[in-house]
Structure prediction request, 179 residues.
Amino acid sequence: MKKYLPNIITIFRIFLVPVFAVIFFSELEFSRLLALGIFILAGISDVADGYIARKYNLISDFGKLMDPLADKLLQFTVALCVAKAEPALTWVVIFLFIKEITMFLGVTKLLNQSKIVVKSNWAGKLASTIYFVAFFLIMLFPDANKIIHQLLCGGFVAFSVMAFVVYLKEYLAYLIKNK
Prediction:
């Protein structure tokens, strides 16, 4: 059972995605705070499954595939829900969509050409952390000045672009090394 724990946590995080969306749009008195709690739980589970997998050498092909998928499903769903409530943030959903399609196509090409599975690096983890903090603050303070929400999302986008550049540099260095 222990060897499957990171994967079980990842599946749990995937399960939390539709639960988050349903709660976010429910008519419950504290629906936004409850949704925020689910978002925090999903974030903690993401850190936990990665930590457990690395610490106990429980890294699996399933986890390599599903963990990033769970992350992207959560990020996209949270951004979509928040943008539905605050339409001025729709651009963030569009950015995420374009970024993820671009990354997917690039990773697929690299995998097909070189049989290399791209692992996350510090820049990607930092961008994800900035995303989490930005959307945590937006959901915690929904009535804050909307310019602050835009700036928080702008910070996430800036770090995402930086992460993309870091990944691109690593890929180009790999190509030069293996020519």
